[in-house]
Design a protein that fits this description.
The chain starts with a helix and ends with a helix. By secondary structure, it is mainly alpha-helical. About 15% of the residues are buried. The chain is built from seven helices and no strands. The chain is globular.
């Protein structure tokens, strides 16, 4: 049961990040460049998880968020939430749920 839930969560995270990138890429050039640079920090976080898992767990146990550990700015996260809201406003509910779920895990 837990394994199935973890797999579903992983798929939602993958889908959420993908759909957010798609919406971000349709934005203004300035916003797009800023957010893509911030989004790249997720790959750094993935590397950190695979190479220094204990450090990440230690920071999480001390109350750090994944957003803070990855170094993602508050402005970037707010713009990503606006992108997720855009999906909701367009009635793309499944994609919006995945995007909001992805963002919720960060902080």
């Amino acid at each position: 049961q837990i394994t199935n839930e973890l797999k579903k969560t992983q798929e939602r995270l993958k889908s959420g990040s993908k759909v957010l990138l798609e919406v971000i890429c349709k934005g203004s050039q300035e916003s797009k460049e800023f957010l893509i640079n911030e989004f790249a920090k997720f790959s750094d976080l993935a590397v950190l998880f695979s190479t220094q898992k204990e450090l990440v767990y230690e920071q999480l146990s001390k109350g750090q968020t994944l957003q803070a550990i990855a170094g993602i700015s508050k402005n970037a996260l707010e713009e990503m939430y606006q992108a997720a809201k855009h999906l909701y406003d367009e009635k793309r509910f499944k994609e919006a749920v995945d995007a909001f779920g992805f963002l919720a895990i960060l902080n």
